[in-house]
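Ticket reopened. Same input as before:
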Amino acid sequence: MALEDFDQLREIVCNDPALLDRLRNVPDLPALMDAVIAAGRERDLEISSEDLHAVANVNRRSWLERWLHQ
Amino acid sequence: MSAPRYDGWVPFRIYFAGGQPWVEWCFMGSNRFSDPFFATTMFFELQTPFNTLFRQHTPMSELERWRRESPGLEPAGFIFHGSRCGSTLITRLLATSPEHLVLSEPEPLDAMARSHVRAPAATAEQRIEWLRCLLSALAQPRGGTERRLFVKFDPSEVFAIPLLRQAFPGVPWIFVYREPVEVLVSHQRAAATFLVPGLLGWETPGVDPAAAVTMREDEYMARVLGGILAQAAGQLPDPQAMLVNYRELPEAIWGRIGRHFGFEFSSGELEDLRVAAEADAKRPGRKFEPDSTSKHAEATDRTRALADAWIGPAYAKLETARSVMFRT
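Engineering reply: fixed in the latest deploy. New output:
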């Protein structure tokens, strides 16, 4: 459920320039994770630190493995 | 809810699933492509906290829709090249103008140009449409001042010239190349990705995949490099084409390359260009050091023989065609 909640928040962020701008200006990853968890909570979305670390790992891997699927 | 917009988002990766291309986007805002290569800019952009967490994945239909809603700049010139021949200097100097958006070897476009491998059922018309939509998304003005788009392709994309010419008819293009021994020595020092056997597929005419894996590395490199130059020569004559030898740089950039691409640098820009041309194009903090002499000194008899046998004939064809262009 939690990753679905993050997907929901991601969709909200991508369509809300003000929220996107605020999160984009958070200077480091731990602080951004805290901000994302808080932004989720404000919208009744349950997102954990573990979820966000998993998302970060998937995203990092997509770049490192980009030649494998193209 | 209105349809999503992609202002500030850049498609940085194409991947294929179920025979269809998908797009992964990151957020760049109004940041420019300021590094010698698209991949370098992406590498740094993807390190930001926001892009570490937030990406978008869309099917190509979203790019088609985004192209209708927000068409990118139309290409003003394409740059193909035989590698290690000054093509990065050309893009670096073109990018000095705030009116220019320069994409230097954008990997997503390379992947799409090879879509026949991962999406073999797609028609040529479909692949052309994908290329147009992807380039439109990549070519969104970043700072608002850009009026001309230039794209430099990976050397292996010389084999995609016919498809790219169909997708973008009328766009002037150049092919840049350099004396074969100098190029081969450069790759012997540090081989480019496209010269690693099999990494980008096996589409180089004249190089049998079964033989390639047992062939000595320097011979494989010479054959592929020769195949690239032969492919470029095979596209001629073409009224949209111009050949540029490394020896003509950097002056040709503010001379006949600019004219071929339909613009001229102002007199005020020329002095900045001359200063910029003194830097190493791939390592902008360092001064450029001419290396033709050292490369010839480093070449072994075997290197010279391989260059003569596998690259020399196509190089000679290009030089003949270039001399004809100068006469007309």
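Residues 2-64 of chain A form one domain. The mean pLDDT of chain A is 93. Please confirm and we'll close it.
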